[in-house]
Write a structure and sequence with these properties.
It is a single chain. The protein is of the alpha+beta class and 317 residues long. It is built from eleven helices and ten strands. The strands form three sheets. Strands 2-3-1-6 form a four-stranded antiparallel sheet, covered by helices on one side. It has a four-stranded antiparallel sheet with strand order 8-9-7-10, with helices on one face. Strand 8 and strand 9 form a beta hairpin. Helix 5 runs parallel beside helix 10. The longest helix is centred in the middle third of the chain and has 23 residues. The radius of gyration is 37 Å and the shape is elongated.
Amino acid sequence: MKGSFVQIIREDLTGLIFLYKPIFLSSPSPIRTPTRAQKFLEKLTTTEVSTSPAKVAARRRRAAMAEANQNTNPNPAPSGGEVPPNVTIYINNLNEKIKLEELKKSMHAVFSQFGKILEVLAFKTLKHKGQAWVVFDEVSSASNALRQMQGFPFYDKPMRIQYAKTKSDVVAKADGTFVPREKRKRHEDKGRKKKDQQDANQAGMGRNPAYAGAYGAAPPFSQIPYMGGAKAAVPEAPAPPNSILFVQNLPHQSTPMMLQMLFCQYPGFKEVRMVEAKPGIAFIEYGDEMQSTVAMQALQGFKITADNPMLITYAKK
């Protein structure tokens, strides 16, 4: 087929050359005579038609190999502008008015429902305000969190979430690629010395740092949680189903906003009430008992921290 096509072109060009013989003779172009034009045409025809079978076979083999490579790798690597899924998610558009420690605790409480969290990173520097990083143990947990929490109103601002571009230190240490940073090391040493000095001062003044309250004073005895076991954790008589939930075994650092982030995911949420004199408990109100039941079943045993699975029952009225 290829030879026939070239032969047709050759015949057409030969006719044109003899038809316009005077033009070729007078033209200043490199092809000035029919003889030179014929030689040019013969060279072109010979090059196209006389391609050896070996070269044709080589071209076919290269095309077949290229197609095979494409079939074996149907999902090519992301382009330079895309970030592949990994265990760390990057969140921005966070409320900058929230204190750093409260922000980190709230984020841990909200995202721990998707899987084990290795660490939550947030910084005070102006460059990193309104941003945080959550490092999960598995990529699937990070992917579920990104998909389900995208746009979630966190402290009245919708979160913008994407996969992190760089590997966190905790992950780098786990896979052996961690490189220490001298500046961070000096900062940590300074913070450790400061903490050791504070502990020494508290010990010298006879105070227990484990129960340090405002201004370093120990809280009243009534505020120290009772660790009596099942008697304190389980109510004596269960209350009938109603719209208010009673939540126990909360970590002492829990805040109303942290609990709101958790419970407002379920329809009918109204408010959170905590008792300052009794840390570790809270009341969560919903529109009706069916809505409160859905939230209770979903969050029963949820761990805000590793040592604090929530115990949820209906509140007594």
